[in-house]
Hints:
Blueprint: E1 2-3, H1 29-37, H2 45-50, H3 55-67, H4 71-84, H5 92-105, H6 116-119, H7 131-136, H8 141-157, H9 160-175, E2 182-187, H10 196-208, E3 220-227, H11 230-247, E4 251-257, H12 270-273, E5 280-286, H13 298-309, E6 314-320, H14 329-350, H15 356-375, H16 390-399, E7 404-405, H17 409-422, E8 428-433, E9 436-441, E10 444-452
Parallel strand pairs: 1-8, 2-3, 2-5, 3-4, 5-6
Antiparallel strand pairs: 6-10, 7-10, 8-9, 9-10
Helix pairs in contact: 1-3, 3-4, 3-5, 3-14, 4-5, 5-14, 5-15, 8-15, 9-10, 9-17, 10-11, 14-15
Amino acid sequence: MLMGSFNSSHHQRIVPQQQEDQDPQIHPDLQLYNQHHQQYQIAQQPLLMSRGLTSRQLLISCAELIYQLDFSSARRLISILSSSNSSPYGDSTERLVHQFVRALSLRLPAVEAAPREIVSVAAATASSASTSNALLEVETEAEEEALQSCYLTLNQITPFIRFSHLTANQAILEAIDSTHHAIHILDFDIKHGVQWPPLMQALAERSYGSSSSLHHPPPMLRITATGRDLTLLRRTGERLLRFAQSLGLTFHFRPIVLLNDVAMIDYLNPASLGLFSDEALAVNCVLYLHRLLTDDARDLHLFLDKIRGLNPKIVTVAEREANHNSPMFLNRFVEAVDHYGAVFGSLEATLPPNSRERLAVEQVWFGREIADVVAADNDQRRKQLRHERYENWEMMMRRSGFSNVPLSPFALSQAKLLLRLHYPSEGYQLHSLKDSFFLGWMNRPLFSVSSWN
């Protein structure tokens, strides 16, 4: 694990400089392919390879062909990629190409669709010929169970979610000291609640380990949690209750089912949430805020205004460090190739080649994300996957009246220890910037965590 600055690309959008003879929406990486395409047919695979076109460049070239509605050429290039550079069981590059070829094939019209085996490899996305129907339809119960299972696997085999939870918990503990007798956490999209047992244990140890524990017993802890599945929410609450009881903590859990994230905005008031004046409120938004993004960010700003009105002690924010919300398909595509290329590279370095866990996570979890980022545009996309970079979150938080709370040196030490003990690869890089933390792979930041009040 290395400490150091990320390269300057972390702060740069992939927006090519406009020239008089160049389409402003075409990324510079596409120019190399354009020069070859003017002279040679795509079907001449060996010649293309000998000219130095990498898998990344071929993927970008295919994206440009689809953007230009040249579906016949795109189909031939997809065939080349799928036959020689793509495999769900190969190295990280071959697995990455496999997922992006599948996603690109979903953009083709039904009559131009790629071979069926390309489209239907991963269970994460629908195999419908209609891109919008495939991406907008609600997951079946089996697909939802597969996603939840992959979330738990992802939490174990990569440091990203655990890093986010650990850092957010430490920010909450430091913002709410031991003098508070009641703590209320508003957790958006709690999933399995794996973030909270370590915080519960820290609260118990802080109270029992204090010389004045008679005056400061463990605080009462309440968690109001949102999610889409009432059964999952109840099971999560039951597990957390049993764990709290084993620690001697007074604990209450309140589930709120949200089929539409925007619907929660009207619910954000003290009466509806059951807030009490003697409670210290913490709001937890781990991998959540991007789900409120629309073209004008109106819902997000309204949500943040409502949260500020609740006067929380702390608001924790964790997000992907990527711009998957660009309205321009080609820029969004290049960003996705580089982001998921780093993610797949980290999985390659930390898991054995025959890892079933990695295969499941790549095909079901990341494969679904790649398909959403690549295969659809505008309102056809799931709102859950409109990632933005930290500087945009910082701007939106400040506009809504929040100030950044610096993450502590102790929180940084904890994150470093997590990497050293459980993910001892030199490729992971942890960096502190603007009082926030960034975790990345090989000089490319992938996740950010920050806290606000």
